[in-house]
Amino acid sequence: MNCVELFAGAGGAALGLEAAGISHLACIEYDADACATLRAAGLPCVEGDVRDPDLYEPEWVGCGLLWASFPCQCFSSAGKREGPKDERNGWPWTVDAIDRLEPEWFAAENVTGLLTHRGGCASGCLGPEECPRAYFDNVIVAQLRERFAWVGFRVLNASSFGVPQHRRRVIIVAGPHAIEWPEPTHGKPSGQCDLFGRSLLPWVSVGEALGIEGFVRLEHLGASSSPVTIPGPTVSGAGNTYSHREDPGMRVRLDSPVARRLTVEECALLQGFPPGHAFHGTRGSKSRQVGNAVPPTLARVVGEAIKKSRRP
Fold first, then answer.
1. What radius of gyration, in Å, describes the C-alpha atoms of the chain?
2. For 311, which DSSP code?
């Protein structure tokens, strides 16, 4: 099975799809630093704007899968949530690519804010021009149903599949028929079972991923924290910080009296990137690439589900 990927970033989704046995015809990305990262990983980078029709090769038409991690800023609860009014809304560009390539399958990843109503919808939905959920239902899903026989979506948490980070994302899949969604393989370290009574492996913790022992807290921009013994909070482009709490009133930093951010390499490990994945650009650019990436493991389990569901 082959794939064309839009908004490929630093290659998180691409690595996962490749691990699922899905080969890439192209990874299209606009950012020059991210393109350098893709090339360093040996992925077939096509540098340019996904809106440019000249980027698309005739042999890509009819590809097995089109994957699009279209920009999430206009739907994220961390922003203004202006949806289609935000110039960064990449969904229309994605639909154009679907029509241009006519893939057998389509898959996308985005933030869970896409599934929630805007605050002003309390007394009645504001409609797709104002509300992310209305845009999702009435535009995204509706347009996919016009093009594919089946459309489905799930919210999947990367930590449920062995990633040392709680990262809940909407996964949208469309194709000729329904898929069997991936079931969690990991959960709380207390003998938890899935819906079918199967034992789950314990979550992969921050400590395991980074080789740190002791009760260390991973903080996310000063807003929330997680002990090293469980998966960390969502890694962001701004980076996360560590501290060691010896008692409720005293905080001792790991390696300095001053709080330090995680390194780019540490954040990448929490995303599930393989050790040594070379990120290019300034530190800020590298951090954004990591924070915006799809955890490779999450893309892998989705890719495996699509491949398993393909009929001969």
1. 20
2. -
**What is the reported pTM?**
0.86
CB 219 within 8 A of CB 262: no
Quick check: 72 and 288 in contact, CB under 8 A?
A: no
Predicted confidence at residue 232, as pLDDT, reads 66
Residue-level pLDDT at 207: 78
Non-local (6+) Cβ contacts of 37 within 8 A are 10, 11, 277, 278, 279, 280, 281, 289
* Contact (Cβ atoms closer than 8 angstroms) between residue 65 and residue 306: yes
Beta-sheet pairing, 23-29 with 2-6: parallel
φ, ψ dihedrals at 210, nearest 5°: -105, 0
Tell me whether residue 237 is exposed, middle or buried, using C-beta atoms within 10 angstroms of its C-beta: 0 to 12, 13 to 18, 19 or more: middle
Distance CA 118, CA 254 (A): 40
CA distance 87 to 75: 12
pLDDT in tens, 156-213: 999 999 999 889 999 999 999 999 999 999 988 765 665 556 788 989 887 788 776 6
Antiparallel, parallel or unpaired: β 250-252 and 224-227: unpaired
Class in CATH terms, 2-188+288-309: alpha beta
> Where are the strands (E) in the chain, listed by range?
2-6, 23-29, 45-47, 65-68, 105-111, 150-157, 168-175, 186-187, 201-202, 216-220, 224-227, 241-247, 250-252, 260-261
* In the chain, domain spans: 2-188+288-309, 206-282
DSSP state of 294: P
